[in-house]
Every structure is written in C-alpha cells, then in structure tokens.
Amino acid sequence: MQGLSSMFLAITCLLAFARRAAGIALPDSSGSYKDDAMPGFKENPEDWIYSGQMLSVPRSSIAATSVGHFALFAGGRLQNDLYTDVVDIFNKQTGKWTISHLSSSRSSIGAGSVAGRYALFAGGLDASFRPMSVVDVYDTETSKWSTLNLHTPRSSPKILDLGTVSAIVGGLSGDLQYLSRSVDYVNANLAISNDTLQIDYPQFGVAISDSANGLGLFTSGYQNNRPGERFNDFQPSNQTTVFEATDSAVSHTTDQTFPYPRWGAGGAAVNRVFAIGGGHLFGDGLSEPLTTVVDRVDIYDAGTGEWVSTPLKLSVPRDYPLVQTLGDYIVFVSGTDQSKDFDILDTRSLAFIANTHHKPSLYTLRYDASAVTVDNCLLIVAGGLVYQGRSTTGSVEMFDACIH
C-alpha cells in the first residue's frame, strides 16, 4: 500500500508539473483556480476564435468591467425601460457564468476596478431618475459584496484604474452645475477620499486607463460653459486631465488640450499610447449637416506627453464606439454605425491592420452595448439595442485571442 501511495503521489506531482508547464491553472485547497499566469496572445486577428453566450437578462446601458480572470456586467436598462440589479459574472478560468445582484436596481453606472482584486460600480440613476452615491464593490477573491459612498451623488461617472488606486471622475450631478468636477479616489484598502478637477468648466468626457503604467486620461466629450446658471450651454470640450499614480498617491495636470473636440468618442490605452476615436459634431442644419459622425482617431503619447500631430482614420465613421485593448492592439467596434467589422490599431506601429476578410466581426449589429477584455486576450461584447434600437438583446459575443 505504501508503494502504491508513493507511486500515486509521484504521478500527481508529474501531472501538476505538466499542467503548470502548459499554462493550465491548478485548483487550490478550496477547489478554486488561483493561477495568475497570463496566457499568450494570437497576433493574427483572423485566428481569434468566436463563440456566443447569453446574459441572464437582456438589457442595454450595462456597466461592465474586468478584474483578473473575471468579467462583470452589472445593472442596465430592460426592454420596458425599467432598471435591473442583475450582475452576470464570467470566470474565464472555469468558463462558467454566475448571477449576482447590486445593492439596488439602477442604470447609468460607472464601472471599473482597483488593485487587480475589486470591481467597482459607482453611482447611477435610481427608478426616479435621481443620481446616486452608492458604490457597490465586488471582491473577486472572496465573492463578497460591500458598499462605499461617493462624496457627491452622480450618474455615469467615469472610472480610471491607475493600478494601486482608482479615480471616479465627474458624471452628471443633477444640480445646477449638471456636470460634476468631483473626483473620488479608492485605494487598495477600499478607503475613499475626495478631490476636484482643476478645469475651467465641468466636463463629461472620455476616461482612459493604462493601469500597467499608472496613467489615466480624462478628455474630449462636452463641457458646460454656463455652470450654475439656469440654462446650460453645452459645447464640445478640449479640456484634458492627465492622471498619474505613484504607489497610492495621485497627481493630475491639465496642461494638454484635446486637438479635435467632439461628442461621443471612445478610447483605450496600452503601452503608454492613448487612442481616442470616432464621435460626432453638430452643425447648423443649413450650410452643414445637423450631425456629422467622424472617423478621426487622435493619439496621445504619454512617453512624450504630446498628441501625435497627424490623426489616424477608422475604416468607417463611428459614434459611441466600443473600444478595448487586446495585447498590443486597440480595437474599435460597434457604435451607431452600420459596420460589424473591427478596426484594429497596432500601438507599436501606430497603424491599423487590414481587415479585408471581415474577420473578426460582430455577428449581431448593436449599439449601447458593453465590452470588456479579460486577461488582455479575451474580448467580450454584451447586451445592447438591436433592430434599429427597438429591442434589447442578451447576446454575448466572445473573441478569444488567447494562446491556451
């Protein structure tokens, strides 16, 4: 018996070693998978593997974020315009979906993460369309929820993941200011503190994180040129705030201006390269169109601290695009345009990859959807509005660029 036990132990160890060498996660004593090794990445987008799933509840305006091996899709708007508290959670290591709940039903929620452990769902609108201050916090290590409170209630705040600390920036305040200058910082201990953006006008902009380098950019969008007055004056904004985190301390500067102000752009960052693309401009409706959707992509190089002088172009104009990073790529997809194709920017060459074979591409044309990237190699697009905005969908499309 002792010889058999020794042989079994030896075989187990050999299998464990083989699984580690192959990059396969092993369960710990509790049966959960704790291997933090990152998978490799398929450089050729045509090799990315497509699969489909469904959310537990079809909805749009979903707050989505990823933390470690998890993707979370929280709250949102149902077909009947009611809000939900449902959270769909995908564990990439097990390939399984589970369902959880926010502390209350709401939409227009800010989503992000901090310290590679916690998912943050900040603010939002309640059933009476009032801005909220609650921040629901999900601990991916314990699968438990807790709550924090913003300094000021607001809907649609933006969250910058700066590594050891996250900044919850701006949003819609519901008072005469309407757009908020408020910033709340959440650190790895879930302590929360408040600050104020040092900008001329309150702004509702695009928030882009490069968490690996502790950098964030809040820019573009629109600003209120008449804060505190009865009637607001919303104009496209060139205000740009650069955030930088060192340990748990955060500084922010406003010496850069966005080169082509517009509404509805989207952005992402990797390798200290920040790309902001798409959006729209308003005209007078007479000598120029009332609304013009743009194909422009502006690049901010955090290494030089400057905007690249020559903008890039998307394959089609995109308004409110979904923008995510995969490996060294920044991917633009969806929006209110009619294209299912991806625009894939290689940040090493600052050039878009040719997509002549229409692969990868979306299966379901949608907008007001949500997207996340897990382990820097799995892109997930979920929910949204289809059929010319008449129906919500629970469709989940997964584009796997991981080398398993």
Task: Characterise the protein shown here.
The chain has 404 residues and is mainly beta. The protein has a single domain, classed as Neuraminidase, CATH 2.120.10. Helix content is 5%, strand content 43%. It has one helix and 36 strands. The strands form ten sheets. Strands 15, 16, 17, 18 and 19 form a five-stranded antiparallel sheet that branches. Strands 20, 21, 24, 25 and 26 form a five-stranded antiparallel sheet that branches. Strands 2-35-32-31 form a four-stranded antiparallel sheet, with no helix packed on it. β11 and β12 form a beta hairpin. The protein is globular, with a radius of gyration of 22 Å.
